[in-house]
Amino acid sequence: MKLISALIIICLAQLPAAYSQQAQVADQIIGKVDNFIILESDLELAYKDYLSRGNNANESSVCTVLEGLIVNKLMLAKAEIDSVVVSDQQVDAQLENRMKMMVNQIGSEEKIEEYYGKTLEEFKVEIRDDIKEQLVMSEMQRTITQDIEVTPKEVQEFFRNIPKDSLPYYSTQVQVGQIVRNPVMSKEAKNSVKARLEGLRERILEGEDFEEVARLYSQEPGARKTGGNIGFFQRGELAPEYEATALRLKPGEISKPVETDFGFHLIQLIERRGNEFNTRHILIRPTFREADLQIARNFLDSLRTNILNDSIKFEKAAKEYSDDMNTSSSGGYFLDGQSGSTKISVEDLDPNVFFTIDTMKLGSITKPLTFTKQDGSQAVRILFYKDRLRPHQADIRLDYQRIQKAALNRKRSEILNKWFEESQSEVFVTIDEKYDSCNILKK
């Protein structure tokens, strides 16, 4: 059997592309695992995705993809048997994240609706079950492999066993860190936003519909479609200030303005079920003044001086002072998404970061730079260009974290292979006879 960890073919990121082609492929059942079926269309779409990743088109590739789909369905069937589940809240959160990513990629909700020929709500309904299945499979795979680790000796042995002519060739990698400072809102800016939200609250209390007001005034990206509804969440899943306020409300009650890292909110509690609560909100972000940004610049300029004078290490300063939670825990460094290494391919860097370091010397730190974050708000940062690796063939001294990740994936794959063989006897699996040459059930 091929390495199963590479066979979860249709990932969440590929769902939109798959659905855009769904009407063009034939539907015929070609496989069944207990109550889960695999259609010809599933194989066609997964195969197109497989080829789009640079793989070769041949009969063996078709078998590889079909094998991956069988494994996926086996995981779902076994998840039912073993009572492995994901909550509706997890599914809804992943669904909203997917919608936000699509909006960022395509440009707007209107363009998404035009592209797919259906409303955003209709599209959400169509892909919700697929997202739930993906989350269940991920949870099942995590359950099977969660305790797997590799020792340094195993990593070295794994590397030694790779033929020299098969060693991967890595493009230019860099080690870049950042320390981010969010501007502090002035009292005047905060009061202005609070007053605006208080006015909206009064309008709702006097009879206007909360959802309509949210559609008109909320700065949350999806509010125009959702009316500010965010669905059920459990304790610990939302901003602490938001959660604490929501849990103090009675159903239907509307809060006073509440400040979180995202801005200011009006919150209405819709329903509470134990530790789960359902809310809608209106979000407004204050506009930073130039003076607010300058305070952040001044702070980072002083911190930069201390780093250059060796009064504090960059990594320590990032952990203590950076407002970016994604990089502060790694000493400010951007991480490779697959290996977790602090050495990241230049192709994976944010373009703004890449073009900045392209003019820098190794070991240098920029002056404070104003930039726009993913949520659209402004912040200030300094960038540290620590190291650069030229394109090279894999070397365990230079690429240990990547090689360790590959060794871990192989070990997990071996565990999954064994699990697949043992689990086949617990479920009913059939595959259309035209794919007998793949010998999937005989491996």
Give a written overview of the molecule.
It is a single chain. The chain folds into three domains: 4-152 and 400-442, Triger factor/SurA peptide-binding fold; 169-184 and 289-393, Chitinase A, domain 3 (Roll); 187-284, Chitinase A, domain 3. The protein has a four-stranded antiparallel sheet with strand order 9-4-11-10, covered by helices on one side. A four-stranded antiparallel sheet has the order 5-8-7-6, with helices on both faces. It has a three-stranded antiparallel sheet with strand order 2-1-13. It is built from 16 helices and 13 strands. The chain starts with 14 loop residues before the first helix and ends in a 12-residue tail after the last strand. It is of the alpha+beta class and 443 residues long. It has helices spanning 15-20, 40-52, 59-81, 88-106, 109-116, 120-145, 152-160, 187-205, 210-217, 223-226, 240-248, 290-308, 314-321, 325-328, 351-357, 400-423, and strands at 29-33, 36-39, 169-170, 173-181, 229-234, 258-260, 263-273, 276-284, 344-345, 369-372, 378-389, 392-393, 429-431. Helix 2 (40-52) crosses helix 3 (59-81). It is globular. Strand 6 (258-260) and strand 7 form a beta hairpin. Mean pLDDT is 86; it is low at 1-25.
Helix content: 40-55%
Q: How big a fraction of the residues is strand?
A: 15-25%
Kindly provide the name of the CATH class of the largest domain. Mainly Alpha
Order of SSEs: HEEHHHHHHEEHHHEHEEEHHHEHEEEHE
Mean of pLDDT: 86
GO molecular function: isomerase activity
Keywords: Isomerase, Rotamase, Signal
Protein name: Peptidylprolyl isomerase
Organism: Marivirga lumbricoides
